[in-house]
Amino acid sequence: MATHGMYQTSDLVPLLAERGVHLSREHVYRLVARTPQRLNMDVLAALCEILDCEPNDLLIPTVVEDKPARTAGGETGPGIGDLRPIRAQVRRPPTDA
Prior knowledge:
Order of helices and strands: HHHH
Mean pLDDT: 82
Low-confidence stretches: none
Strand content: under 5%
Helix content: 25-40%
């Protein structure tokens, strides 16, 4: 941004709007100042056009390890241990014949 004379994240708001991407100042700030969890392809394309760069100039791929899946036995993470609910039995009421 600095190489294009933009020193505030709010400078991007009107430039994005010109390209059909309407974001609030707060959203643009979070997009620039923090690591976004998701990024719309329209936003990425507009940013690339505004900054005259390629997507790989803006994105750095990283590997994030997932948490281990919780198994039916509950071995992973906090659980209820050996306590299990008793399965309910539905019985028909006796009929008077």
